[in-house]
């Protein structure tokens, strides 16, 4: 039985998408923390917490073969530099992007359907009631 595909919600997906959308930008644990938490001051305790979380997610992605990069050590601990997606990571990022944009596309399609129904009602209310009162979904 095939294993279910992992779902990358929150920071896990944000990291994959950030690297995927900017393939020529050299990301590190620090730059990803800043990009995902732009309102935090670098010297604040909240930033340290955010950095630890982002670093943990990066390590998980690294361990699962989704990203590659150079592992280094600093005063904050181990961090990664020159992060790039692997082929597997690119596929995961595309899946996250599609899953996140799919609800918006469904909303757009339902809005178009409602506009069509409104137009049909205005043109012929009796014919509309006869054929189109059932929900297609």
Strand order of the largest sheet: 1-2
Q: Structural class of the helices, strands and pairings?
A: alpha+beta
Ranges where pLDDT stays below 50 over 5 or more residues in a row are: none
Helix content: 55-70%
What is the tally of beta strands?
A: 2
- Averaged pLDDT, please? 85
Q: What amount of the residues lies in strands? A: 5-15%
Rg over C-alpha atoms, rounded to the nearest angstrom: 22 Å
Shape: elongated
Number of helices: 5
Order of helices and strands: HHHEEHH
Largest beta sheet, briefly? 2 strands, antiparallel
What does this structure look like?
The protein has 137 residues and is of the alpha+beta class. The chain has 5 helices and 2 strands. It starts with 10 loop residues before the first helix and ends in a 6-residue tail after the last helix.
Question: Care to give the gist of this entry?
Answer:
This protein has 137 residues and is α+β, with helices and mostly antiparallel strands. It has helices at 11-21, 29-36, 45-63, 87-123, 125-131, and strands at residues 67-74, 77-85.
Looking at this protein, list some descriptive labels.
single chain; 2 strands; 60% helix; elongated
Topology:
Layout: H1 11-21, H2 29-36, H3 45-63, E1 67-74, E2 77-85, H4 87-123, H5 125-131
Antiparallel strand pairs: 1-2
């Amino acid at each position: 039985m095939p294993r279910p595909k992992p779902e990358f919600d929150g920071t896990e997906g944000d990291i994959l998408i950030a690297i995927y959308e900017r393939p020529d930008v050299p990301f590190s644990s620090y730059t990803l923390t800043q990009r995902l938490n732009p309102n935090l001051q670098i010297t604040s305790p909240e930033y340290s917490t955010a950095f630890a979380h982002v670093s943990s997610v990066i390590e998980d992605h690294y361990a699962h073969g989704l990203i590659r990069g150079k592992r280094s050590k600093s005063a904050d601990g181990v961090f990664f530099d020159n992060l790039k997606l692997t082929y597997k990571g690119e596929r995961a990022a595309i899946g996250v992007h599609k899953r996140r944009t799919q609800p918006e596309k469904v909303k757009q399609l339902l809005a178009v359907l409602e506009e069509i129904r409104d137009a049909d009602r205005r043109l012929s209310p009796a014919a509309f009631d006869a054929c189109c009162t059932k929900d297609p979904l």
